[in-house]
Amino acid sequence: MKKRTKTNIILAICVILLVLIPFIFVKGEYSGSDDQGTEQIKKFDPSYKAWAHPVWTPPSGEIESLLFTVQGSLGTGIICYFIGAAHGKKKAQQNKTKQTVKQYKGW
């Protein structure tokens, strides 16, 4: 087996473990950091009232999770697109430079 394939398999196993371990060892309901932050604030200041409220509240937690995931995926896609475009420009510039050097040496 190639060294690169072996490394990829090990990395894939690590990723799977990182995803599964919290489900095995963390008991209870998962909640977002916004909820946890509000709980802590109310614990120290019971008279606290939120000064901002959502414009629209999703009908269920599943829809909220879906929208959060879609938002993250779109953001990741946009970032990766610009990284790929910059990488492609750099490669094209390097190839153009190599071709120019070859043409110059050919004279």
Mean pLDDT: 87
The main sheet comes to: none
Determine the number of helices (DSSP H or I, runs of at least 4 residues): 3
Low-confidence stretches: none
Shape: elongated
- Give the amount of beta strand, in percent: under 5%
List how many beta strands DSSP finds: 0
Gap from first CA to last CA: 47 Å
Cα-atom radius of gyration: 25 Å
- Protein structure class: mainly alpha
Mind explaining what this structure looks like?
It is a single chain. The chain is mainly α and 107 residues long. It has helices at 3-25, 33-44, 61-106. The protein is elongated. The model has no long low-confidence stretch (mean pLDDT 87).
Summary?
This protein is mainly alpha-helical and 107 residues long. 76% of the residues lie in helices and 0% in strands. It has 3 helices and no strands.
Any descriptors?
mainly alpha; 107 residues; 3 helices
Task: Set out the fold topology.
Elements: H1 3-25, H2 33-44, H3 61-106
